[in-house]
Known about the structure:
Blueprint: H1 11-33, E1 41-53, E2 58-64, E3 68-77, E4 87-93, E5 101-104, H2 105-108, E6 119-120, E7 124-127, E8 130-133, E9 137-139, E10 143-149, E11 155-167, E12 176-185, E13 191-198, E14 201-211, E15 223-227, E16 230-235, H3 238-241, E17 252-253, E18 257-263, E19 266-272, E20 278-280, E21 283-289, E22 291-293, E23 304-306, E24 310-320, H4 330-334
Amino acid sequence: MTPSFNWKPNYYFFLAVITIVSASTLNAQLLNDLYKPKQGVSSNAIKYQVVNIESGIEIELAKLTGAGLITYFYITDNSKGNIYRGLVLKIYWDNNEEPSVNVPLGDFFGAIDGRTVDYQSIVMQINHLCYMSYIPMPFSNGARIVLANDGDTAYKRIVAYNIDYIKDPSLGKNDMRFHCFWTRSNPTNGMHELLNIEGDGHYIGNFLQVTTKSKRWWGEGDTDFVIDGNTMKHTPGTEDEYGACWEFGHKYSYIYSGYIENENGENRMYRWYLANPIVFKKKFSVTIQNNYVKPGSAFNLSKQDIANDDYKSVAFWYQHQAHGVKLKSYQDRIAPSMAVEY
């Protein structure tokens, strides 16, 4: 008699296999390239000290000269997982007077609102109060990394940080610059715009924090890219965009996507478009709808309704030449959530 097996496909099994295979392929590629000669000469900027920044003041973490590439940036302080929300990370490229990175320090690493949740992804990680970025950041004529306090109280902590970079004159003609933008929709009125820019470049990812008072599934909205005037629908639901399907079944932290918080109406997720960067030549915007499905109509997409949750996001992209990035005021960033109960 031939034995029979009553085996049913398991979503989590397949997802785990895909993740392991993807990570193994990536690691194999890195290992295969490890012996090859590298361009430039390595250097770094490192400090471990008491940092005191009064309200309205900023300090310089590092000033790099010439042409090069930042390969790693980590920072930590002794606030034990609650980073002061008035701290702002600013990065200036090539003597530009406006910062191309202008974002709350914790939020840059995915600690939205300064609240730490450990996770591991391919380019960003938080491990036991160590906030790490492996995003490559080229420059051709110097870089300034600044920590500013735009909050209402003084910041005084023990701080350690290190910035690894490669000095490489061959990057002098490279004008691709890393940018980062923070924004908030409080409430969304059914739509959150993560980014809207002009220029030539490619979008590489985001963090998204959703604060909701709803007991219903709030994430039925599509993610849409508008590339040079043409709309490209990317996914038909929030969970699809952030690496899951049919709602978020559990928390997870994978190389390209993660859903790392689900506590008291707070939902935190990330998505990296590294193997599939979103390329644009003139203009680019990305939006995510904040919709929910009315009870009893889970399979009737015409019966969706707009939701009014509170969305915060951090968007990352590369663009030709350095452009200034604005940041909402400290008061706007810490304002009480106006998420609506529905």
